[in-house]
Write a structure and sequence with these properties.
Chain lengths: ~325, ~325, ~325, ~325
């Protein structure tokens, strides 16, 4: 099977969906690039090159470069979605949420409900979260809790190229607004990806490692770290189950609860700030619904309550690391009432 | 504002004139009655009435079909009626009833009917401008010949999302009309204070599209300007802006004591700036329609509104299960 | 002692601080009203009349009506705060967060950190949260988790007039940005408020009821409901401790943990949506730090994962009610492993 | 753009001219060196260089004192140096060192020094315009006679927060200068595409303030225009806007292959639109300064930058405890 990076998967999936369905369009800043310039068209293909080449195939009528005005174009994507298109709106960094948030939580998320079920808003906002690029506090955030909280939105956070394909297909064909969040450090990660079409349903967790001593829930860039720790601890005889929910909304509660019923111990890893994080959210669900099974405190491993620092030495401390995950696991394993 | 003479370039036939009259009268009667119902307590929440501005919504929507779109504001009843939303469903919606046009889940600020191209009233000032740009993009991409009209208040004209939307529509050359209704107030703040340039259409024009100012109390003036803009849009020539000068006969919301208006201001405006008598005078003088025809419409409108309110009052509230439905298509 | 409503307390406190400190200014939409109009100045005094009369005393130079452009004036408040003023920015409904969120989490919240500690940003954003006004989905939200999550912000959610005074004084004199959130249904609530100045520190919970069987944490409009339930259950012999943290950031973890150490049972009440709520957050803190004391699942009582419905019958079901709190308490009391 | 002749209304004395030259040369040398350091890997993250635009920051800031304010962009090194930020502290900041001007916690996109009135580079396009309006409000309220200058790119000119800020500054009549640097590009998108009207200053003017377009490669033209705007601001006459036409010698960020620019474009612009030789030609022709004086400055600048880089490279990283400090004053 061919290996593909997440970047390639995004490209190929957007391309195949645009071929299949003429109502799919792509819009955002420099999704093509080169408009109004003296050089090449298709100069950027998105800030990270995801869409390179698509403007050649589909033209500027469907690969739409926008001025730097996120409220307008994210809102326009919603308006287009209400009226017969299936837009994919690229938001370069999810850190820019703040300039277009109204269109997300007050507009697209609420239409179906406010309008009594009489509208579809099929659009995907594709963006990047996370720290590690050494870009300072305004370009290193994990703001997925801000949208996971909002009824009417679905939030996808894939960790690998295989899942990205199946989830992105589902997202583009979904009739509700989907926030599709990749991690800034991850889009060059490759794995085997079948050429055939396959859809991964939302709300179905993936059991990345099976284990019996402790459940670790991790998503996005945190999955690989959890797996590394799990594999290391396995050699010591500690059996760690690693669950990747893949979508934070809907959330596969069942998978998590079932696992905790078995292991009795839970560590949740989330790159977001600790307060009101998805880690806190999952912890609270388990503390409510699987309390009887719990044999130890529920540990959350998150970024601290500080903005992301620029200096690499500080940023490395800021991002939840394998050591943090490992010591959380050891703590719950060692715990005796 | 000095009232300009009604223009006369537009030729509307008798049926169209009666339709225009019916729409304006329906809006006025609906709003008047909803104000009363609000005061009685049968309409919960906030209610913003459109009275005085009827000519604008009516003139705009008479240039549109169901495959054109409008995006509205918190003051959306008039736009909704003009775009063809069911008046009974609206009355029930405002009362939070199961028979409401949005099942009672939206309310006054969220009246919508996508089958009519009405993309929703909007509780967020400026919130619908980007949506209309998107609807225009959709019409253009799907090549339907449709246009999208974004209704924006003078207060709302200062929102960032509105400015961005104008630029985006110009850049993508979309069939969008930015329809500014300058009623002189944003809540309790005067337009002349809040719009630094004192000129909404001039500012819109500087974004790179044709923009004009019209007398919003003159149905015909608005109709003509909109016709030009809509034609431009349908022809693929891009967006336009219109600033229609009008007023607001009521407060910002029902119950607003309007201390910010000098005593007598509203009375004077009711005498001088009421678009309905202006329209009636004109069509009677032209002999385009008979007084009798207008009176028949008055009676029909009154009974429609009466019926709508009675049915709405009698209608059931949504069942408790409705709290949880319509959040997602699938989840 | 005189009784005052929250509305009066806001008025009087802003007034006394403006008298005391010439750098305090107030800005927002219609905080005076009447600008550019034919009638009275001071026509609104804020959308809810909080500031009525202040423009007469302080003039339009310090009571500043702004156009409807929240990003600009909230950001301007931050810029003024960096450069020598102490602005109070009125944001009529916190539902409008989406049009100015960037200025809040990317700008004011991060300046001190990004600039290496070399700046103060002393400003207060005063706004209203909550449902119950029958205004539909865009005017009924409880978006405090969105800001509680953000490092660099402080978030105050007082429940009564007494606390409002002491906390608002602290907020205005604080050198960090403070989000001060009143509940839409509460500002006419009155209680005894001393005329003298008193400051209530942030991060100090108030024990509204003492009890030994179960801890209930509630804030803002939820406190009164929790207290009503507590008082009712007391007659049955169930002893409920009600803690109002008063500020969600900083959070008085200690008070909550101490109480749970004693009662072993916790119910957290929050009008926000369930996902990533402050309720979930507090639950997760306790599940981590006081697990050993827990004798029952931690219950959270929140709004459901739906937009706020307009219809009064649905909205009443949407808002967490006394019955929801009561059944959560009964459930944890009845729980046996 | 056709290059306009250097104007000659401004009388700057020798010392001022040398100061202008020193600033421009310092910026150029700093950026050139930082680009090299970035490529060596000693400067982490993204780095956006200001080379080509030096005349603008320099001309603006020579009209300002430490009690005036500037708000900057992601491309903020030039503004910072011109406003008097310590170059050594900046070099260390870009490398994330403890001796950085922000203790290494901010980085390239967050260089700031409030004691110099430099309110920060900004990673959010358009993000600093509202802040500058606030700084102008502060200056006006505290009656300091200060002004605030918001630097905005051609791409950033389309952000809602910027439009709102212009209107707010006009309404409150604040001493604010909206300083547009039109370098022709926002990332890989041309200004002529992204600004629908093709005219940033015209659009700004329609918000109700004086707005002019100047040749941004001509230090003197910018200086004069800024002088007028700053005087207006200090006199209490409200905001102004200037659009300075310029270019960008490098990519959007260091490493950008710039496919969107035709081959030879940058080379041609380097020959024809480099503000530094334009300035030098002018002052030598005028005999205002000697070539020797300029060469002395060149040497001093080179050694300053060399020293700054060496010290920065040798400086320690912040200690781990720094992760948790400076979040709040008290918490
Ligand atoms: C983003 C946002 N800011 C503020 C408000 C509160 N608000 C509702 S209507 C209104 C005034 C709008 O004035 P205008 O646009 O002139 O419309 P009009 O009421 O005159 O129809 C304001 C400030 C809001 N709903 N949304
Ligand atoms: C709100 C926001 N949107 C998008 C970006 C990504 N971005 C960074 S710089 C830039 C281009 C800015 O162009 P311009 O304003 O012309 O400034 P220049 O780079 O030419 O100096 C973009 C799109 C951002 N940082 N913030
Ligand atoms: Mg108005
Ligand atoms: Mg540029």
């Amino acid at each position: 099977m061919p290996k593909k990076t997440i970047r390639e998967v995004i490209h190929d999936t957007v391309q195949s969906e645009m071929r299949r369905d003429p109502t799919v369009i792509l819009m955002g800043e420099d999704v093509a690039g080169g408009a109004g310039c003296s050089g090449e068209d298709d100069a950027f293909g998105g800030a990270f090159g995801f869409y390179k080449g698509l403007v050649g195939e589909f033209g500027r009528g469907r690969i739409i470069d926008t001025p730097i005005s996120e409220a307008a174009y994210i809102g326009a994507a919603a308006g287009a979605a209400m009226t017969g298109l299936r837009p994919i709106a690229d938001l370069q960094f999810f850190d820019f949420l703040g300039v277009c948030f109204d269109q997300i939580y007050n507009q697209m998320a609420k239409f179906r409900y406010m309008f009594g079920g009489k509208s579809d808003t099929p659009l995907v906002i594709l963006s990047l979260v996370g720290a590690g690029l050494r870009c300072g506090a305004q370009h290193s955030q994990s703001l997925h809790p801000q949208v996971t909280a909002v009824p009417g939105l679905k939030v996808v956070m894939p960790e690998n190229a295989y899942d990205t394909k199946g989830l992105l297909l589902t997202a583009i064909r979904d009739d509700d607004p989907v926030i599709f969040l990749l991690h800034k450090l991850q889009f060059e990660n490759a794995c085997e990806v079948p050429d055939e079409e396959y859809l991964i349903p939302f709300g179905e967790a993936s059991f990345v490692r099976e284990g019996t001593d402790v459940t670790v829930v991790a998503f996005s860039a945190m999955v690989a770290k959890a797996v590394a720790v799990a594999d290391r601890l396995r050699e010591e005889g500690i059996s760690v189950e690693v669950i990747d929910p893949r979508t934070t909304s809907p959330l596969d509660e069942e998978a998590i609860l079932e696992s905790v019923e078995m292991t009795g111990r839970l560590v949740v890893v989330d790159e977001a700030w600790e307060r009101c994080s998805v880690a806190a959210d999952i912890s609270s669900i388990v503390a409510r619904k699987a309390f009887g099974a719990l044999q130890a405190p529920i540990m959350t491993v998150t970024a601290p309550h500080t903005p992301a620092p620029f200096s690499p030495v500080l940023e490395d401390l800021y991002i939840p690391g394998e050591d943090d995950i490992e010591s959380a696991i050891r703590e719950v394993i060692a715990y005796r009432r | 504002m000095t009232r300009r003479k009604a223009t006369s370039g537009v030729k509307l036939d008798r049926e169209q004139l009666l339709r225009a009259y019916r729409t304006m009268r329906t809006i006025r009667a609906f709003e008047t009655r909803m104000g009363q119902e609000f005061e009685k307590g049968t309409v919960p929440g906030f209610t913003h009435l459109y009275s005085a501005q009827e000519a604008i919504a009516t003139a705009v929507c008479m240039n549109l079909t169901d495959s054109d779109y409008i995006g509205s504001t918190h003051r959306g009843h008039g736009h909704s009626i003009a775009k063809g939303c069911d008046v009974k469903g609206m009355a029930a919606e405002l009362m939070g009833k199961a028979t409401g046009i949005c099942k009672g889940k939206g309310g006054s600020m969220h009246v919508a009917d996508l089958s009519k191209g009405m993309l929703g009233a909007n509780g967020i000032v400026g919130g619908s401008a980007p949506l209309c740009v998107g609807a225009g993009l959709s019409a253009k991409t799907r090549n339907t010949g449709g246009v999208a009209v974004s209704f924006i208040g003078d207060g709302g004209s200062n929102e960032g999302a509105v400015f961005e939307s104008m630029n985006l529509a110009v850049v993508l050359k979309l069939p969008v009309l930015f329809m500014y209704e300058n009623n002189g107030y944003g809540e309790a703040t005067g337009f002349s204070y809040a719009v630094g340039s004192g000129d909404i259409s001039g500012r819109a024009g500087a974004f790179g599209m044709p923009a004009e100012k019209v007398d919003g109390t003159d149905f015909f003036a608005v109709y003509e300007a909109v016709q030009r803009a809509v034609e431009r849009g349908r022809a693929g020539d891009g967006p336009s802006a219109i600033e229609a000068m009008t007023t607001r006969f009521g407060g910002h919301f029902v119950g607003d004591p309007q201390l910010y208006r000098a005593k007598g201001e509203v009375e004077k405006q009711r005498r001088e700036m009421d678009c309905i008598p202006v329209f009636v005078d004109r069509v009677l003088k032209d002999k385009s329609v008979t007084r009798k025809a207008l009176q028949d419409i008055d009676a029909q409108v009154e009974s429609l509104i009466e019926e709508a309110v009675e049915e709405a009052l009698a209608a059931p509230y949504p069942g408790p299960e409705e709290l949880f439905t319509d959040v997602y298509k699938t989840y």
